[in-house]
Design goal:
- By secondary structure, this protein is of the alpha/beta class.
- The chain has helices at residues 2-14, 29-32, 48-58, 74-81, 93-103, 108-124, 142-151, 154-168, 173-189, 211-235, 275-278, 280-285, 292-296, 316-326, 330-353, 376-386, and strands at 64-67, 85-89, 243-246, 260-265, 354-364, 367-369, 372-374, 389-398, 407-408, 423-424, 428-436.
- The chain folds into two domains: 2-104 and 239-436, Rossmann fold; 108-232, no CATH class.
- Helices cover 44% and strands 13% of the residues.
- The chain starts with a helix and ends with a strand.
- It binds S-adenosylmethionine.
Length: 438
């Protein structure tokens, strides 16, 4: 019986061929970074046009759209442009800062004025000896300074402190959010972080550019994006459409029962990106966490978890996958089981907030761990069906190589450089479109 249920789900996926209309292969980088989409780098970002198409096909103006794994806020920006209200959630404070900055349009003349004031203050400011990050919840202690010195030179730290000081002096919150986002984006290029590495790796002989120049240049580019966003929203009479990003867990959405028409999201993958590690420069600078290990525990898809229960996955296929991995690597098998159990809890929350007849569009690729194919899309399909969703449609789409790394290390399952990777990771991905039953 269980075997035939697995076979039915797999058969439905096996017959799929890529739908070229969902690949967006003809889009240029400029088009995918239009308006505020180019504010900040973020791994595994949505193509904005993909999120927009899903919203056009599965919701109406005025509807409430949710993204429980909002990342950099692509869904929220597109929802606002399409006159849909939106709520986004992410456990990563960096995602929250970026989504907050990207969804607010600042009146361009006011932003230009703030930019001039900030530049003047930067040039004129005496060098403060104290760092002044905006979050004062955590103490500024010796350990914090030491970790900063691991990543930044003394002269860069002094420049960053002056930038932060000038930002903190701005009187309007939206301006501070805008420039903190620019500062967060600047950190990687002015640190010892190896530019070509997605992992936290130092390159001590890196030639470090001037932090003021990098920051001001990026803020200028962002201001052009803000102007484009502002103009589009004015044209569409959408300036006041709410787009609300929260820094919280996808299992606790700040949304009332049965109020959302649509969920558009791309969940994290199991043991691929360690978002907590990747964004550690911003987490460190803004003092969003003092203990990176505990901070990591809140992320779904983490490796080396010390907490969490994987009792319930509600998917025979997930059981089979974890049993296969267990044959060679019990730790990885536990991580995969925990991932599927935590994703099930997220889907329960999605069902709670969706109104009857509402749609959930989940964008997810399959991957490999320890030689076993981890069929995320098929497992999610089983889990959603068990929760009372009907599967309306599954789209197979090709992923342009610029958007996602294509290769993985076989042993760890983590993304790897092309030359030392074992195979292509996911040149295609699925869009699973499920409907909450009436
Ligand atoms: C694939 S990314 C989403 C990218 C997004 N679509 C975009 O366009 O930027 C997955 C996100 O899930 C977030 N995440 C991981 N665990 C989470 C949790 N427990 N609750 C909410 N978000 C979580 C990660 O921080 C990451 O930003």
């Amino acid at each position: 019986m269980v075997g035939s249920r697995i076979a039915t789900v797999l058969d439905a996926f096996n017959g799929l061929t890529p739908d070229p209309s969902w690949a967006f292969l003809d889009l240029t980088q400029k088009q995918t970074r239009y308006a505020t989409h180019g504010y900040h780098r973020y791994p595994a970002k949505f193509i904005p046009q993909l999120a927009a198409r899903l919203m056009r096909e599965y919701s109406h103006e005025g509807d409430l759209v949710i993204d429980p794994f909002m990342g950099s806020g692509t869904t929220l920006v597109e929802a606002k442009l399409l006159r849909r209200r939106s709520v986004g959630v992410d456990i990563n404070p960096v995602a929250h800062l970026v989504a907050h900055a990207k969804t607010q349009a600042i009146e361009p003349a006011r932003l230009a004025h703030a930019q001039n004031r900030l530049t003047e203050r930067l040039i004129a400011s005496a060098q403060p000896n104290l760092f002044e990050p905006p979050n004062t919840n955590l103490p500024v202690n010796a350990e914090w300074h030491e970790r900063l010195r691991y990543w930044f030179s003394e002269s860069t730290l002094r420049q960053l402190a002056r930038i932060q000081h000038a930002i903190n002096e701005l009187e309007n919150e939206d301006e501070r959010v805008f420039f903190n986002c620019a500062l967060s984006h600047t950190l990687k290029s002015v640190s010892y972080w190896h530019d070509r590495s997605v992992k936290p790796m130092r390159k001590l002989d890196k030639s470090i550019p001037d932090a003021f120049e990098v920051f001001l240049r990026h803020a200028k580019r962002m201001a052009q994006g803000n102007r484009e966003f502002w103009n589009l929203l004015c044209e569409r009479d959408a300036l006041n459409i709410p787009a609300l990003p929260y820094c919280t867990d996808a299992r606790e959405l700040p949304v009332a029962d049965e109020t959302a028409a649509l969920v558009v999201t791309s969940p994290p993958y199991v043991t691929s990106y360690e978002y907590a590690d990747l964004h550690q420069l911003s987490v460190l600078w803004f003092r969003w966490a003092s203990d990176l290990r505990m901070f990591r525990e809140r992320f779904i898809g983490r490796s080396n978890s010390v907490h969490g229960s994987s009792d319930e996955m509600n998917s025979p296929l997930a059981e089979r996958i974890t049993a296969q991995i267990m044959e060679t690597n019990s730790r990885k098998a536990r991580e995969v089981a925990l991932y599927f159990a935590e994703m099930l809890a997220c889907f329960r929350e999605v069902r709670r907030v969706l109104r009857r007849g509402g749609y959930a569009c989940i964008v997810i690729g399959n991957t490999h761990l320890c030689g076993v194919e981890v069929q995320n899309a098929q497992v999610f399909t089983e889990q959603l069906t068990a929760l009372g969703f009907s599967i309306e449609r599954v789209v197979l789409r090709e992923i342009p190589s610029k958007i996602l790394p294509r290769t993985r290390d076989k042993a760890t399952g983590k993304f790897a450089k092309t030359h030392d990777a074992d195979y292509v990771a996911y040149p295609t991905e699925y869009i699973v479109i499920a409907r909450k039953q009436l």
